[in-house]
Design goal:
With 310 residues, the chain is an alpha/beta fold. The protein has helices at residues 17-24, 36-44, 46-57, 69-72, 104-120, 149-167, 215-231, 245-248, 262-274, 289-295, 300-309; strands at residues 4-9, 29-33, 61-67, 127-131, 172-177, 194-198, 237-240, 279-283. It has an 8-stranded parallel β-barrel with strand order 1-2-3-4-5-6-7-8, surrounded by 4 helices.
Length: 310
């Protein structure tokens, strides 16, 4: 049985119908996705506070899910602390993406800012989603080069989780397995409070994930098996794209109408629950007022019905 049934939207997708849709579909988690500064601005605004309060009154938890590394370690620090940042394959320090996980000072700065963000935003569920830069490279310095992107990602996640739990003892932090971190970590093991967040963005959606005749889906299943062997299924979350109009529109507006396949969704949800997942959510970015005007209501009720029956 699923404990957590959710959808992930950006603040710009929200309109008055969403409260009705979420409640009617019996979803109990709304993830808000976007730049950290945008999420803070929304959460502090009068409209944002009112919207979040209405959801929480209905028993719907609000979480924040962001590629947060550029906020946790501001790029402006590069001028004074280049050693905090990653080394590229040519041996040059660069302040473009992520960080050098072997730099204790860099990791300490990330953890300090993660605690600050936790205090700024309300994480009522106790689940945090502070992701690295979106599919970007990690460090190739002498101390890091033996660690894969997945290992470096987990090394930082472990530190953030430990820092969060000094103030929030039950805090849980998702370790995003996605694009260049889809392989299981080989050298680093997850610390207490770190859970698997599996986001198979490059799978095929016209067929079920567990269909062995689809090469890209079969590959994702193999990787998931290794990830579950590393992380276990406790608190694991499937972060899917069944409702993600932005993905299916190639991240360009105007959004195309979703080609929602309820049969695939049913088989995917059965696959995840069989593998121990009790938390399932899907991006639904671009399901905004413009989408509603162009195509009518998206299939939120149908989506919620499948998750509720799981």
């Amino acid at each position: 049985m699923l404990k957590r049934r959710g959808i992930v939207l950006s603040p710009y997708d929200l309109h008055d119908k969403w409260i009705e849709w979420l409640a009617g579909a019996e979803l109990n988690v709304l993830g808000l996705h976007g730049g950290v500064s945008d999420l803070i601005e929304f959460a502090r605004s009068s409209d944002g506070c009112s919207f979040i309060a209405k959801l929480e009154d209905l028993g719907i938890q609000v979480e924040y899910e962001a590629h947060a590394m550029g906020w946790l370690l501001p790029r402006s620090e590069f001028d004074t602390h280049p050693e905090w940042f990653r080394m590229d394959s040519d041996g040059a320090r660069t302040g473009d993406w992520n960080l050098c996980p072997s730099s204790e000072e860099a990791v300490e700065a990330v953890c300090t800012n993660a605690l600050s963000l936790a205090e700024t935003l309300s994480y009522s569920s106790g689940r945090f989603h502070l992701w690295p830069d979106d599919g970007k490279p990690w460090c190739s310095c002498k101390s890091c080069r033996a660690l894969s992107a997945s290992d470096q990602n987990l090394l930082v996640a472990n530190s953030i989780a430990g820092s969060l739990r000094t103030k929030y003892p039950r805090a849980l932090l998702g370790c995003l397995s996605y694009l260049n971190t889809l392989d299981a970590p080989a050298r680093i093991r997850p610390a207490r409070g770190v859970f698997l967040e599996f986001a198979p963005i490059r799978r095929a959606y016209e067929r079920p994930l567990g269909d062995p005749s689809v090469p890209e889906n079969s590959l994702h299943v193999q990787k998931l098996d290794s990830l579950l062997a590393c992380f276990g299924s406790k608190n694991a979350e499937a972060l899917e794209y069944w409702l993600d109009a932005s993905r299916f529109s190639k991240w360009r507006k105007p959004a195309q109408k979703l080609q929602f396949n309820e049969r695939v969704l049913q088989q995917d949800v059965a696959f995840y629950t069989k593998n121990g997942f009790r938390s399932i959510t899907s991006f639904g970015v671009y399901l905004d007022a413009e989408y509603l005007g162009n195509y009518g209501p998206p299939p939120i009720a149908e989506y919620g019905s499948v998750l509720k029956r799981a």
